[in-house]
Please model this.
Amino acid sequence: MTQERGGVIRVRPAAVADRAFLLAAIIELQEHERHLHDTRRPGTEIAVAQLALIEARAAGQGAILVAELEGAPVGFVAGWVEQEEVAAETAESNRFGLIADICVLEPHRCQRIAAPLLEAMEAHLAAAGVTWLRINVLAANAPARYVPYEILHEKRLRPPSLGAL
Model:
């Protein structure tokens, strides 16, 4: 538990009872990212599938952790162990912890809630034996950046589809 200016922050594993909160947080995260990049679909269209993907990937050596502030869920982080086979990378680098999603609900941002979430996930993944941790963020989401490792650049070759007229 961590004491912050807004109260006591407790980080714990997600439970079945957190499903509605997790869906709402995924929608909020997706909508935030939609404002940063026009390739993101509406949160309501992807939330159920995204949560199912997160739950499946976190099963085993991963986790979904929830931050509570005074007993109410205010954020979550999801992560797991990834194994790649990149010839240019060391064996240690090919097996790493991946933070796939992190969200602190908008009214609770800038209260240092993400820090204990990330610390708890780092400890969980370190206990799984990884020595490297990676996180993907949209380049436009500067506050979320760790130390850059690799950056995937993109270029739009044609304007987005306007749909059927």
Q: What stands out?
A: DSSP finds four helices and six strands in the chain. Helices lie at 19-36, 43-58, 91-94, 114-127. The CA atoms of residues 103 and 120 lie 14 Å apart.
